[in-house]
Amino acid sequence: MKSKVVSLKEAIQEIQNGDCIFFGGIVEDRRPIAAVCEMIRQQKKNLVLLGTCSIPGDLLAGGQCLGAYRGCYTSNGAFGISPNIKRLSESGKIVIDDIGHLDLSLGLLAAMAGAPFIATKTCLGTDVLNPEYDNLSKARAIARDARTLPDKKYQLMEDPFYDMGLVQLYPAIQCDVCVCHVQQVGEEGTVRIDGSLTFDHYAVHAAKKVIVTAEQVVPEEYLRRDPNRNQIPCTSVDMIVEVPWGGHPGQVYNFYDMDIPFLKEYAQGCVTEEGFNQWADKWIFDAKDHEGYLERLGATRLEKLRSIPPYGYKPRRQGGI
Amino acid sequence: MQKYFFDKHKSNKENKLVSLKEAISTINDGDVLFLGSFVDTRRPMAAAYEIVRQAKKGLILLAECSLAEDILVGNGCAIAWRGCYTGMATFGLSPATLRKIEKREFFPDEIGHIDIILGSMAAMVGSPFVATSATLGSDVVNEEYSRNEYLKNAAGNPEMIPHQKFVLMEDPFYGKGTIKLQPAMPADVAIIHVQQAGEKGTARIFGSLGFDHYFVHGARRVILTAEQVLPEEYLRRDPNRNQIPCTAVDMVVEVPWGGHPSQVQNFYDIDIPFIKEYVSSAKTEDGFASWIEEWVINLDCRDKYLDKLGAGRIQGLRTLPPYGYRQRFR
Amino acid sequence: MADKYAKIGDYTAAEAMVINAARFLKNFDCQKGLIGTGLPLVATQLAKLLYSPNMIIFVETGQADAKPEELPISIMDSRLTYGSSWQMGDPEGLFPLSRGEIDFGFIGGAQIDKYGNVNSTFIGGDYNKPAKRLAGTAGAVDIGVFAKTTVTLMAHQKRRVVEKVDYLTTPGWMVKKWPSGEMVRREEMGMQGGPNAFISTLGIMKYDEDSRIMYVDKIFPGVTPDDIKNSTGFDIDVSRASENEQLLLEEIKILREKIDPLNVYGMR
Fold it and tell me: Which residues of chain C are within 8 Å of residue B237 when distances are taken between CB atoms?
């Protein structure tokens, strides 16, 4: 059997222009940042991002890899609205199709279960269902394979079973590629996540291709001693890359905490296009690869971020940054 | 207008420990009941015995009709069932269930295994239904065999049962053609036997979760029986290792060996001779009655049950690390 | 004996808002709340310490009964994991809402209208070229649809408290019925719940039972009814307003020393 363990470059080469893509983690927690930087190096184009935007989506937008975004969150959490997305949105240069957080959960759940749609009352009464704001067809026009996206955003009907009244039929959310950053993966692909699973445990089943980047690649047999503690089965994983600190500047529970000064610098620096380009030159292009990125950060800075037990993060009172 | 399946007032108490008797006394005749896990693994057997002792009536069972359910059916506690399996795996078909179905004293309503999963999943997420291609083309979607109306009339709380068993429609999103709308499967009560529970209700399961991690969220009341009740705080040191949150649980009962004769991973293995004896006894009305008399009615507490089994027998079932079961050659 | 009450100038407007919100959460002790990111999280932590120790906290990243030892910087912060009953993901964090188990939702936002509808998506311009793009729906839409009641926390400014929101993200008392978009009472859509209160930097607003329109219920010390009128984008009813109790020095001390000693939230 061919080994699933590949280099970051090889893994990212599998992503095609126009792919519908989903990133694991959320906002600044367990995000596949190293993988995204590599996508920018490889100059991917017209990607359709599903899910939450935040840092990975914002990087792709700034790096001109993003064609459209369908999801529920365009903010970098405590660090303000995602700066590149904000700039591009306000100049009408990016297609955004807003959906709800529960829509996203239910859409991935339906895809995981092989169901074409599921009924819900969420978003009723709001502008998420406003036909004027429905940009799904624009996203479909950008996607390499329009069939990955549903024919329509939603359909309304009366619940025939439990008198719940009007409900929204919400279509499954499927994607071409899902990229997750996790704490541990075995060489066959079994994954152990610590902390929030975010959507990863659903999204890996909703994707045609799954790339896992991990802080550690460990013996598969080690993870199989306690299968109840693993959240992604090897059967759903296609490619594995060991990328220590692959989630920096976000946090990775039990490994490292978020790099707040770095995140602030990004938020401030990337307000303008020139600012982002300078940032990208420094941290993506001149750094050449992830090893170069880490060298630039320096060992001391990284060590300060290391989590400590039993908390899984670096308590601020103990000198976290 | 009803927005949710039921108004769920979960207990927020720090300590939810009660006796088995108290817990089971909250079950009403006519309740829709889910018994945790399936076939012969991690079954809430002690709870089922207590339901028999308290002589509950008219229960509607969900999911599988196997070891634990068969006892309720045989004793006349359950009147109907919606699910996908009336067998006991290696040990043959569920003996009392077959007998009662053939005598028209118990009414099955067949759905698919995936239907149960999707139905409990929909209840978990508060959705009235989910679309699926499962069971299309089979007699599961034969309206003639639907007992939906019977279930709705029999249920103590009819709103637990949908107006229809299913609806067919065209998929408007992905061109999948005709699909089935599978309604949610809420329950009045779910009883789950687990390995470890905290006093507030956080639970840690070893081995298959069955449907339990879905049904606990789609049930109005949730009773946990546990091999061990541990300090809640201990389980909270690794929240990633817990499968049932305290917020889903109403009552916790400590019942060591509460799953015997089924297997409970990391605690004890399946008691094969015991199950075989049950299966052969339960084939007749009289045999079933004397088995119930011997193992349930006459043993009104768990200690008596364990003493009757005997220390030697129990010791022979204990599992060993690292496997979590008892290797047969031992 | 030193006075137990703070004086105007002893605290910032943000601190007044957060402390008053923590007091308001007394109403939700022993209940289940789904807490949004930002200052609601700070107010919740303060309330758990002072006023409602038995509140059960859910957040969207999938912890049940979270009990963080250190103030999370957002609801995605892994500080929420340790000590919680279970740790799953976003879907499991949101499903208690859609099951109808969440007693109250507590959110921030960028714009609120007189019916308690909240906007966190965009302001000005149009959807495809907004003057100001915001964070998006996040869980705010789901909280507005499913929580039994909702509390909103937001700075009180004329451009934020408006007649009609630019984008309806979180449904309040009057919502849009599609495809026409006409405004209808939320019950008409089969939606339970509805907004409970809007807590701002100036006071606490409630909603009239008949008209469903926002009015001023409490005014914070040092604030006049005219201040509120001038900071509101519609003609708000101040006739029912009374003054709220001044902040306690103890509340400020705990907020500054125990909850956010490093001023991570920039409240001062």
Answer: 82
